[in-house]
């Protein structure tokens, strides 16, 4: 932002015009306006500090969750391959109709509950897996084999890990959106709003100083005339 030189600062005072560089609004060179902009600048600086602290906390949480998500993903790929292998063996041994029929007729034995928690005032999902009270396999053994049993057991063990990985992924996405919004607000404060307030404060302060000098010069002239008349 280019600062006004001394001649540009004097011109509004001498011609009675206002500064038009405050977010598209006129700025009157008065002490009330000066106090107003000083207060606004202080508030903007406080908000900048709060947003910067929030940005740092968001970054820290994102970094931690990325690390946890990486660990969670690493622990599910190998078991998933084993599950795919068991299911494929079941399809080959029993046929797709039998496996699909078993899958469709089997009641659910696990439930996934979705709740939310807050991290730096950002809502992120929390998934919890609960197992129903079943002591035996929820299907008959007549038309199945060990491959289906093995796949069912592996899925049962792996589902909580998959949900945890999904929880981390969604949390990272939510925190990243909040970080982007916070960074935009910070950029606006640092690059536009605070510099504009500071510019207006300098403009008004210099204009008032120039006005005081002019009034002082006028008073000296008046005093000199009065003294010359007396003599």
Could you characterize the architecture of this molecule?
This protein has one domain: Helix Hairpins. 72% of the residues lie in helices and 12% in strands. It has helices spanning 6-15, 31-74, 77-94, 96-105, 146-230, and strands at 19-22, 25-27, 110-119, 122-131. The strands form 2 sheets. Strands 1-2 form a two-stranded antiparallel sheet. A hairpin with a 2-residue loop joins β1 (19-22) and β2 (25-27). α3 packs across α4 and α3 packs antiparallel against α5 (146-230). The two termini are 54 Å apart.
In short:
By secondary structure, the chain is mainly α. It has five helices and four strands. Helix 1 packs across helix 5 and helix 2 packs antiparallel against helix 5.
Record keyword descriptors for this entry.
disordered N terminus; 5 helices; 231 residues; rod-shaped; mainly alpha; Helix Hairpins; 12% strand; two-stranded antiparallel ribbon
* Corresponding CATH architecture: Orthogonal Bundle
Lateral strand order in the biggest sheet: 1-2
Strand count, sense and barrel status of the largest sheet are: 2 strands, antiparallel
Overall geometry: rod-shaped
Number of helices: 5
| Beta-strand percentage range | 5-15%
The stretches of 5 or more residues where confidence is low (pLDDT under 50) are: 1-17
CATH topology: Helix Hairpins
Backbone CA Rg:
36 Å
The figure for the number of domains is 1
Assembly state of the chains shown: single chain
The strand count comes to 4
N- and C-termini, Cα separation: 54 Å
Mean pLDDT score, rounded?
Answer: 81
Structural class assignment: mainly alpha
Reading off the top of the CATH hierarchy, the class is best stated as Mainly Alpha
SSE topology string: HEEHHHEEH
**Percent helix:** over 70%
């Amino acid at each position: 932002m280019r600062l006004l030189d001394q001649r540009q600062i004097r011109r509004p005072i001498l011609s009675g015009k206002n500064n038009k560089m405050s977010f598209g609004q006129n700025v009157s060179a008065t002490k009330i306006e000066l106090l107003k902009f000083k207060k606004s600048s202080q508030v903007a600086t406080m908000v900048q500090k709060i947003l910067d602290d929030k940005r740092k906390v968001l970054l820290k949480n994102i970094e931690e969750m990325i690390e946890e998500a990486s660990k969670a993903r690493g622990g599910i790929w190998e078991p998933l391959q084993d599950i795919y292998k068991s299911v494929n063996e079941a399809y080959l041994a029993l046929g797709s109709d039998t496996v699909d029929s078993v899958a469709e007729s089997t009641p659910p034995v696990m439930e996934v509950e979705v709740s939310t928690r807050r991290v730096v005032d950002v809502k992120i999902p929390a998934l919890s897996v609960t197992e129903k009270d079943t002591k035996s396999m929820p299907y008959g053994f007549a038309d199945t084999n060990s491959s289906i049993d093995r796949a069912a057991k592996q899925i049962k063990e792996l589902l909580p890990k998959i949900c945890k990985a999904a929880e981390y992924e969604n949390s990272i996405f939510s925190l990243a959106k909040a970080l982007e919004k916070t960074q935009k607000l910070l950029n606006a404060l640092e690059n536009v709003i605070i510099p504009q307030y500071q510019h207006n404060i300098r403009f008004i302060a210099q204009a008032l100083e120039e006005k005081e000098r002019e009034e002082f010069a006028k008073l000296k002239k008046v005093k000199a005339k009065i003294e010359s008349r007396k003599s």
